[in-house]
Design brief:
The structure holds two protein chains of two kinds.
Chain A (H helix, E strand, L loop, with lengths): L9 H5 L5 H20 L2 H26 L7 H18 L4 H20 L7 H21 L1 H4 L5 E2 L3 E3 L2 E3 L2 H22 L3 H11 L1 H6 L4 H27 L1 E2 L6 H14 L4 H24 L6 H23 L4 H13 L6
Antiparallel strand pairs in A: 1-4, 2-3
Helix pairs in contact in A: 3-8, 3-9, 3-11, 3-12, 3-13, 4-5, 4-6, 4-11, 5-11, 8-11, 9-11, 12-13, 12-14, 13-14
Chain B lengths: L4 H32 L6 H17 L5 H24 L7 H23 L15 E3 L2 E3 L1 H23 L1 H11 L1 H6 L4 H27 L8 H12 L4 H21 L4 H16 L14
Classes of the chains: A mainly alpha, B mainly alpha.
């Protein structure tokens, strides 16, 4: 808490953003987000859309792993459910885009509830492995349920269309994805001011104690799974509209690991952490591409790019867990604290 | 009803062969888990490192195969000790999930290193096993699978004997059953940690060389680790017996699913078993049921 924000009413104390400074910075952020697409080129818009999708999914996983303490390695598979739902609806029925995205979220949520069922019996790593099992099973379904998923060839998705406007460029998709992601992040931030969110945190800290205090474990753990996979489903839906083709190989296990890594690198159990983590993990490969491009190497620069990426990805996970377990969010907090009193005290 | 019994027997034998390797790798996994309580997702990649070291020594340095294997095993052991010291030891006392994620990161690093040095192209290990066909009864067993199983079974027996009678093995088992008590009885627990990772990496390297000899090596052979994960979960994370039984079981089931239903059903079948076991016996077939106290 910063100096000079004496709270004089309960409303103020409960509010999500409680200081003038915060309001001012939020306004700056909003203006920046609105202005960004007019100054950025196609490449940066592409990245921005990708980041928005990843933030949505990472925030979902953060609800489950960061706040409820249930590790899942199935986030990508749930995104797959969302993506396939959207693709199939778009292809077979041609229903409106926003409805498709919602449907993707809800179908993924159902999947999440089923996968979450063992969570009452098994915990920790056993649960993580059970979610790997779920993603293997889902991959099999994606690859073999030909009538709906189109088998290994997958489904090609038509560009999203709202009120006659076709969302076929990154510039246009930006206006679709960023508001949705912002809404979802805001929803998650508000969730942890409610009874449900608090119950999640209680379960994370000690589930048996939480049960003793009157939190029905099964219901809340399932709810957490459901919410998290809803986020994944919507993110997957956006993914389908973004890449416009959905195949069983689009959502591999490494993608689930990517999201878990983003949660860890960003900082588990904080809203800002999920955002920072998703941005960081999406940008690092791009930054690497730049660096490898600069290096005075011969033609095999692209050849070493992929292994270097893999190494850096792993090193980031290990490095953050060993040296900064609270993640980027903690680094950010330290920087902010430094500037609170800055010219007057170092 | 002309069911092809010969086909079935051959598939079961092939499955047992693969199962022996699962059991061997599962043993390495359980050893690490028992001593350090680390769920090591990088076990498949440690296998891969062993196989690639052997490949590199045998082809680039032209060592004879037996020497290459020996050096690769020792090198893997040193790599295992290094990984433990650099990445796992600092995580002492952290939540098991963080440590698990560290091993996930390690797996990624190892894959990257292998791709950087040897590229992601699949390679073949030089032949070193007898290639005369082996017949058990009427069933034909691929010689590599047969000798692989023999090596695995021998190694498992040796490892079990070592842990029963050798001083270090006793220290390891003492640490596994009660870390603090072991510490206060004068057992150097950090050294036991090192030891368990070293030995596990060496066992994994041998398994890797055999797996590589049977199916070729590539930077994606770490997927083998996924099946091993299923094996140890089904058997119970902290049970050596469980790893052995579940290893053979998963091997046979995988082989049956592959033989009768098709290759894409292999992974599905093993993970179905995993789900069923988790639902019926959450701590595996032979695992210790942990009791939580507040």
């Amino acid at each position: 808490m910063r100096i000079g924000t004496a709270r004089s009413s309960y409303r103020h104390d409960e509010s999500l953003f409680d200081s003038r400074t915060q309001h001012a910075w939020l306004a700056v952020l909003a203006v920046a987000l609105l202005g960004f697409p007019f100054f950025a080129d196609e490449y940066w818009l592409y990245l921005a859309c990708l980041v928005a999708i990843n933030i949505a999914s990472t925030t979902g996983l953060n609800i489950l792993t960061g706040y409820t303490g249930l590790v899942s390695l199935g986030q990508a598979a749930f995104m797959g459910i969302g993506a396939y739902t959207v693709a199939a609806l778009e292809q077979k029925l041609g229903t409106p885009v926003l409805l498709n995205l919602l449907a993707g979220g809800f179908v993924a949520m159902l999947g999440g509830l089923v996968v979450g069922l063992p969570s009452l019996r098994v915990k920790g790593l056993y649960l993580a492995i059970a979610t790997i099992a779920a993603s293997v099973v889902l991959h099999f379904v994606f690859a073999n349920w030909h009538s709906v998923t189109g088998g290994h060839a997958g489904i090609t998705v038509a560009p999203a269309e709202i009120l006659g406007v076709s969302f076929d460029t990154s510039f246009r998709l930006y206006w679709l994805f960023v508001p949705i992601t912002a809404l979802m992040v805001l929803g998650a931030a508000n969730l942890f001011r409610t009874r449900i969110g608090r119950a999640f945190i209680a379960i994370r800290d000690r589930d048996i104690s939480a049960e003793v205090l009157g939190i029905p474990l099964l219901r809340y753990k399932l709810l957490s799974f459901g919410l998290s996979s809803f986020y994944a489903g919507v993110a997957g839906g956006m993914w389908a509209y973004f890449f416009r083709v959905v195949t069983p190989e689009s959502f591999p296990l490494i993608m689930s690991i990517f999201f878990l890594a983003a949660v860890i690198v960003g900082g588990m159990g904080t809203i800002l952490g999920a955002i920072l983590g998703a941005v960081f993990m999406t940008m690092v490969p791009e930054a690497l591409k730049l660096i490898v491009g600069w290096l005075p190497l011969s033609a095999d620069a692209t050849l070493i790019l992929s292994p270097v990426r893999t190494i850096v990805f792993g090193a980031l996970i290990v490095g953050f867990l060993v040296f900064e377990p609270l993640g980027l969010q903690e680094i950010w907090r330290r920087i902010r604290r430094f500037f609170h009193l800055w010219p007057f005290r170092a | 009803m002309d069911f092809d019994w010969l086909f079935l027997t051959e598939i079961v034998f092939a499955g047992l062969g693969a199962g022996g390797l699962y059991a061997l790798t599962g043993l390495a996994f359980v050893m690490i888990y028992k001593a350090t309580r680390v769920v090591n997702l990088a076990i498949g990649e440690m296998l891969m490192i062993g196989a690639y070291l052997c490949f590199g020594l045998a082809t680039a340095m032209n060592l004879p195969m037996w020497l290459a294997i020996l050096v690769a095993v020792i090198g893997s052991g040193m790599a295992g000790a290094l990984l433990e010291r650099v990445a796992i030891r600092p995580m002492l006392g952290e939540s098991p999930i963080s440590v698990f994620m560290v091993t996930v990161g390690l797996a990624s690093i190892l894959v990257g290193v292998v791709e950087l040095i040897w590229t992601s192209e699949p390679r073949r290990l030089p032949e070193f096993m007898p290639s005369a066909p082996v017949m058990i009864g009427e069933a034909f067993v691929p010689p590599k699978v047969f000798y692989g199983f023999l090596v695995a079974a021998t190694l498992i027996a040796v490892a079990l004997a070592v842990f029963r009678f050798w001083r270090g093995g006793v220290a390891l088992r003492a640490t596994a059953s009660d870390q603090q008590a072991a510490y206060s009885m004068g057992i150097n627990v950090p050294r036991v940690f090192s030891l368990s990772w070293t030995v596990a990496a060496m066992i994994a390297a041998i398994a890797g060389v055999i797996v590589g000899a049977v199916g070729g090596i590539s930077s994606t052979m770490g997927v083998f680790g996924l099946s091993v994960l299923v094996v140890v979960i089904v058997g119970g994370l902290d049970s050596v017996l469980g790893a052995l039984v579940a290893g053979l079981l998963i091997g046979v089931v995988e082989s049956l699913a592959g033989g009768f239903l098709g290759g894409e059903y292999k992974l599905l079948a093993t993970f179905m078993i995993l789900i069923v076991v988790l639902l019926v016996r959450p701590y595996g077939l032979f695992g210790t049921h942990e009791i939580e106290r507040l």
